[in-house]
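Predict fold of NmrA-like domain-containing protein; 119 aa.
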Amino acid sequence: MAPTILVAGATGNTGQGVVKTLSELLKTTTNFSGHRILALTRSSRGATAQQLAELPNVEVVEKNWADITPDWLRHNNVVRAFIASHVHPNQFAEESTFHLAALTAGVQYVVRISTTAAN
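Predicted 3D structure, encoded as tokens:
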């Protein structure tokens, strides 16, 4: 399986921009040659998820990022991850679980960002 860049929160305000930019980079640079993008979303049936699924090297997967395990990351050959998490009270506990899973699985790079929509 190709090395994978995981984008958790792929259909959110920031995540969809990350997926689009990464898809374009995979076409134009050799740094990520052979990589694929795994775009995680709560609903793969939404319009944004469907648009992302049409991009080159992007696979949209319906999965709650808080349920990701080290075995799941290894099975999907995730070597890099981008996470744009929610802002609910359990955010830090869920993020800690995710980061520990990534560390245990040997994910090489993790980018974490916290965002909310403009009011």
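The chain has a mean pLDDT of 90.
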